[in-house]
Amino acid sequence: MTHRYSDGPAPVAQPDLNLLRTFLAVHRSGSFTAAAQLLGLSQPTVTTQIRTLERQTGRELFERLPRGVRPTPVADELAARVAAPLDALAAATGPGVPDESRAAPVHLAGPAELLCTRALPALAPLVAGGVQLRVATGLTDPLLDELRAGRHDLVVSTHRPRGRTLVAVPLTDEEFVLVAAPSWAERLRPRMAAEGPAALHAAPLVTYAEDLPIARRYWRHVFGRRLTRRAAVTVPDLRGVLAAVVAGAGFTVLPRYLCQDELADGTLVALHEPDDPPINTGYLVQRPGAFDNPHVDRVRARLLEAGRTW
User: Fold this and answer.
1) Alpha-carbon separation of residue 116 from 71, 108, 121 (angstroms)
2) Which of 1, 126, 282, 289 is the most buried (most CB within 10 A)?
3) How far apart are CA 157 and CA 264, in angstroms?
4) 126 and 303 in contact (C-beta within 8 Å)?
5) Has residue 6 got a pLDDT over 50?
6) Predicted local distance difference test score (pLDDT) of residue 94
């Protein structure tokens, strides 16, 4: 039997399934080393198998980079053809009905604020029922790289990842709100009515990072202009930003879910209520294919269900 993987005159003999599994792991993870960890193989074995597959297909499948590899168009075509059949085969030839009592911990990663205030409370009933969690926090892009390398099972991402190496589904929408403590709001809101956002230069800005990612987005979306100022305080955790602003340090932009209680009890005041507030969609991301651990599916389903109410 022959199968052609790319345009060309010569048919190519169908490669061994092990070579295709290794190829798909490299394509999805973007690294020989990461694929080796996922497959339980040595890195030299993965390298040898990819070279064998390249000889059999007569095509270069990956461009070697200083860090990892980049798939060629031929590799993308091959992955598109073999991914679904290989995933179906892995599911059909798995261990059968899993023993959930012996399932491994689920490795979940994402922004600290969303995990701690929303995800972990939602997952508490699963933990009480025997699910084990190992939670990591950090910035989205490094966490997605670690997901590709097999270090996590699921990642809550602040944006949809590019490419075909990961699968993402919308999890929740977060609305951003411009807030300050009442003492600042009393001074700033009347001035904003007259001067617009320029009035806020009279108050310290508290934010997540030096490049002001959330505040800059708010300024672009709501005020239609670029934010040009430095932060008075930066805290790499939005819960710290919230605490500082509640205490009177200045003003900030926060996801509404994080400060809704403070807005309700008056310890924070919205400085501006636009008709079209900026919204960011968060995604739940995983590697393609079936999970060996049945608890990953349970965690995923619970997060998607809970995310509709956040």
Assistant:
1) 36, 12, 7
2) 282
3) 28
4) no
5) no
6) 59
Would 195 be classed as within a structural domain? Answer: yes
pTM: 0.72
Beta strand 251-255 with 167-180 is antiparallel
Map tokens 């008075």 to a residue: 232
* Neighbour tally for 266: CB within 10 Å: 10
For 291-308, letters b (16+ CB in 10 Å) and e give bebebbebbbebbeebbe
Pick from 203, 107, 201, 154: nearest CA to 301:
154
Separation between Cα atoms, residue 109 and residue 80, nearest integer Å: 27
Q: Is the pLDDT of residue 96 over 70?
A: no
Range of lowest pLDDT (31-40, 56-65, 170-179, 260-269): 31-40
Quick one: angle between helices 238-246 and 256-265, nearest 10?
20
Structural domain for 141, as ranges: 103-166+287-307
**pLDDT at position 8:** 46
The tokens describing 279, both together, are 């919204």
Under DSSP, is residue 133 helix (H, G, I), strand (E, B) or coil?
strand
**Do 78 and 154 fall within a single domain?**
no
Same domain, 114 and 59: no
Residue 107, domain member (yes or no): yes
Indicate whether 142 and 60 sit together in one domain: no
